[in-house]
Amino acid sequence: MVVLLLSSKMGKRKVLLVFAILIALNIFSWNFFFFLQNEELRVVFFDVGQGDAIFIRTPQNHYILIDGGPGEVVLEGLGREMPFFYNSIDLVILTHPHDDHVSGLLEVLDRYNVKNVLCSGVSGSASVAQRWEETIRERGYRQARAGQRIKANEFYIDILYPAESFAGETVDDLNKVSVISRFVFKEEYSFLFTGDAYAGQEKEVLSYREKCEEEERAWCDVFSLESDVLKVGHHGSKTSTSEEFLDVVSPKVAVVMAGKDNRYGHPHREVLERLENYKVEIMRTDRDGDVIFEL
Q1: Please, which residues have CB within 8 angstroms of residue 170's CB and are 6 or more apart in sequence?
Q2: Which architecture, in CATH terms, is 38-294?
Q3: Rounded-to-integer distance, Cα 146 and Cα 15, Å
Q4: Which helix (H) or strand (E) holds 89?
Q5: What's the predicted TM-score (pTM) here?
Q6: Is 278 exposed, middle or buried (0-12, 13-18, 19+ CB in 10 A)?
C-alpha cells in the first residue's frame, strides 16, 4: 500500500530512486556491521594467474597485502575482501620486483591509501620495476632486513630474509633477494611466505637460525620457521622447497600459487611428490581458485 501511495504521488522514477537509496543504505549498514563485528583472522591467497598476491585481514581490521600479482586482477580480490567504504591498507610487502609480483601493487598504490611499504629496495631493469622504484622513492618505504619484527596486539610478522642491504642495488636474479616473512597470530597460527626464493636462500635462512641458536641470542625466536601453512616458493618450481627446509618448517598445508596451464610447467612434479612424502595437504590456486583460511 505504501508503494502504491508513493507511486501515485511521486511517480515511478522517484519510487525507484527511493528503493535504490534504501538498498544502498542496507548494503552500507551490513558492510559497516561486518567491519565492526569481524572476529576472524582471514588469509586469502588470491588466484591472480601466474603470480603472487596474498591478503591478510585481522580481527582488529588490520589489512596487509603481500605482493600484487600481474596486472589489475588483485583489485578484484581486494574489492571482494574489503568493505567498499574502506580504502586503507596498513602494510604492503613486496617480496621482489618481478612483474608477476609487483605490477598489481602499482595499481594498489594508485587506488588505496597504503600506510606502510616494506621491501628490499633492490633495483630491477624492467619498466614495471623501475616504476615501482620511482613510486616508493617518492612515497617512502621501510627496508626489509632479517631480524625485524613488526608487532601488533594479536599478531607479528618476522622478516627472515634478506640479511644484507640491497637498497638501490641490482642483482643478477631478483628471485635471490625475495623477502621471506612469517606471520604469527596469537602464537597459535603461523604462515610462512617465501616469494620466489630458491633452495639456496632457504639454506641461508636455516643457517641464520642455527648461528643464532649457537650464540644463544635473546631474539632467536625471530628466526623460528615452523609454520602451519607454507606458501611454496617460486610457484612450485623444483628449484625451491628443499627437503632440508621442509624438515624444519614442518607445514600442515602448502599453498602453490601458479597460473592454470602456465608455460613454465609449475608446479613441478618433484615438488608435489616431495610435499606428499611429508604428508602435507596441497592447495593450488590454478586448480582451487582463491585459497582462503578463516581462523
Answers
A1: 122, 123, 124, 125
A2: 4-Layer Sandwich (3.60)
A3: 60
A4: strand 88-89
A5: 0.87
A6: middle
C-alpha cell at 186: 596469537
C-alpha cell at 208: 641464520
| Grid cell of 284 as nine digits | 593450488
Q: Which residue has the cell 522514477?
A: 13
Domain boundaries, the chain: 1-37, 38-294
- Polymer length in residues for the chain: 295
Alpha helical stretches, state H, 145-253: 199-214, 243-249
Residue 161, φ and ψ in degrees, nearest 5: -160, 145
- Looking at residue 104, its pLDDT comes to 98
Report which of 148, 242, 250, 158 is spatially closest to residue 200, judged by C-alpha positions: 242
The model's pLDDT over 77-116, given as tens digits with 9 standing for 90+, comes to 999 999 988 999 999 999 999 999 999 999 999 999 999 9
